TrEMBL record:
<keyword id="KW-0175">Coiled coil</keyword>
<dbReference type="Pfam" id="PF01243">
    <property type="entry name" value="PNPOx_N"/>
</dbReference>
<feature type="domain" description="Pyridoxamine 5'-phosphate oxidase N-terminal">
    <location>
        <begin position="50"/>
        <end position="136"/>
    </location>
</feature>
<dbReference type="InterPro" id="IPR011576">
    <property type="entry name" value="Pyridox_Oxase_N"/>
</dbReference>
<dbReference type="InterPro" id="IPR012349">
    <property type="entry name" value="Split_barrel_FMN-bd"/>
</dbReference>
<feature type="coiled-coil region">
    <location>
        <begin position="171"/>
        <end position="198"/>
    </location>
</feature>
<protein>
    <submittedName>
        <fullName>Pyridoxamine 5'-phosphate oxidase family protein</fullName>
    </submittedName>
</protein>
């Protein structure tokens, strides 16, 4: 049974009513008909998506109640899994407005939005963030809930690394096939040479047999 914690956090009364009117209540709203299951547990699927991510959008809440969105990026693996439902990433220097850090000091709720453009997958994460000062300032996230979103509206995009890896895969496949064909040609050449050493074979007229 699917964990319903995300649904309890995301769906308010108006959302539920609109689901009823538009026929999607059975797929979504019915999850609220049983008590909240509590925090989701990150599985291998979510961790693989997060580990491969080179970018995500980070949402926090301002003291005036407005949503605030930032873009974060880095090499694959820059969002680290510390075990369980805990993630952490480096808070790289920006424009020194410190809006995200200020928001987390008054409201630790946050959202992370990951998109895998080539595979048309996206993952929404709800969590609570804390700031850790040190040699490098980092933001630690305790994941509360997550949801895999519909891929219909994602426009595929391919970065240079993805295209390089894809090209190498095709090159390796072509090289392996070339090796197979070369081996087959050599086998046929050896067979032809063997037959030539036996001398010419005289064809028999139809209906006759050797004596």
């Amino acid at each position: 049974m699917i964990n319903n914690h995300y649904h309890h956090l995301a769906f308010g009364p108006d959302a539920i009513e609109r689901q009823r009117v538009n026929g999607s209540y059975v797929a979504y709203g019915t999850h609220l008909e049983r008590p909240d299951d509590g925090p989701d547990e990150l599985s291998a699927r979510e961790l693989r998506m997060i580990a491969d991510a080179t970018q995500f959008c980070l949402g926090t809440v301002t003291p005036t109640g407005w949503p605030y969105l930032q873009y974060r990026s880095g090499p694959a693996g820059f969002v680290r899994h510390l075990g369980g439902n805990t993630l952490r990433f480096v808070d790289l220097p920006g424009n020194n407005q410190f809006v995200t850090l200020g928001n987390l000091s008054t409201d630790d709720r946050l959202a992370m939005f990951f998109v895998d453009y080539p595979r048309k997958q996206r993952l929404k994460v709800f969590g609570r963030g804390s700031v850790h000062e040190g040699e490098r300032r980092e933001i630690e996230v305790g994941v509360e809930a997550f949801d895999w979103n519909c891929s219909r509206s994602i426009i595929p995009r391919y970065d240079q690394q993805y295209l390089s890896e894809l090209g190498k895969a095709y090159q390796d496949k072509a090289a392996a096939r070339e090796a197979e064909l070369t081996a087959e040609i050599e086998r046929l050449r050896a067979r032809v040479a063997e037959l030539e050493q036996r001398g010419p074979v005289t064809a028999l007229a139809p209906g006759r047999t050797r004596t």
